[in-house]
Amino acid sequence: MSDVVQVVTTVNSQDVANALVRDAVAARLAACGQVDGPLVSTYWWYDAIETATEWRAVLKTTAARAGALETFLVERHPYDVPEVLTTPVQGGNADYLAWVAREVR
Questions:
Q1: What is the pLDDT of residue 2?
Q2: 4-103 to CATH, choices 3.40.50.620, 3.40.50.720, 3.40.50.2000, 3.30.70.120
Q3: Does the global pTM surpass 0.90?
């Protein structure tokens, strides 16, 4: 098991997703991040089913930096209740995992 985690969020614009990733990497809260989409999300919101086009940002960081990255994302997020999910990385290329840890120190 590694100390690396993936933090995922979704937003309503590719530009917003790109800015969140760029700014998180610049702040050394994430070693890297990818944006993918568009994707279609369906969810409950105020007692109604909504469907929206979104973009997903996936960021790599360490467990020690994940809380700070979550705070960063929530503060800059356009949604009232942003999705920010953290998932531990169970394994992978040891050199890559070490690189992630070095980049967020």
A1: 80
A2: 3.30.70.120
A3: yes
